[in-house]
Predict the 3D structure of the following.
Amino acid sequence: MSRYAVYAVPGADEADPSAAVRLRQAAHAWYAREDVRDLTVNARRYGFHATLKAPFRLAEGRTEAELRQAADEFAASRRPVAIPGPQVAAIDGFRALLPDGEASDLDSLAADAVRRFEEFRAPLGVAEIRRRHPEQLNQRQRNLLERWGYPYVLEEFRFHLTLTDNIPTERAPEIDAALGEHFADVAGIDVPVTAIVISIEQEPGAAFRLLSVHPFTCRPSLETA
C-alpha cells in the first residue's frame, strides 16, 4: 500500500528563487557522491526534504485526488517563508541543514500541516508503532505519536533538511569536513520555501518520489489610505 508525505522541498518548483534551486542541486549532488553513498541510503530513499506531515497511509475512504486538492487549498492560504541561513549541523547522530536563526514561521507551517492533513492519515498499525521505538520516547513524544502518528510534531518539531543517515563516531570528522566543503557556496544564505509538495512511496521500501508541487499563492492585501 502506498504512503504519502507532505514535505517542504526548497527548489522543487521551477519558479523558485535561485537560492532554493541551488540548495536542492547541491543536496542532490551530495547524495550522488560515491564516497558517502553508504551513509546516505535512507536520506536518498526519502529524498531532499523537510518533513511537515510524516509519511502516512490514506485513511479509509480518502483518495489521492482529495489529498492533492486539500494541498492546493492549504497552499493557497499561505505566503512564502524563509529558512534563515541554513547550516550543516548534527542532529541525533545524523547531519542535516538547520535554520541558523529564528524559525517560528517554519514551525507554524509544520504545525498547520500536521493538523490540516490529519484527516487523510490512516491509524498506525502495530508494526508501524513499533518502528518508532516508543520505548525510547519521552511521555510527550509517545502522546504525540498516538495522537498525530509521529512523535516529532508541534513543540517537539525541529525543521531540518536531512543529508545523511546516522554517522559512526569514527567517521564524523571526515564526513563533517566533506559536508562543510560541499555546501560552502550555499550554506548560510536565506532560502525561500514557496510551496509544499506531496511525495509518494508506492510500495514498502521504494524510494519516495515527488508527486505534486503546491505553490503558496496568498499575497498580502493592499492597505487603503
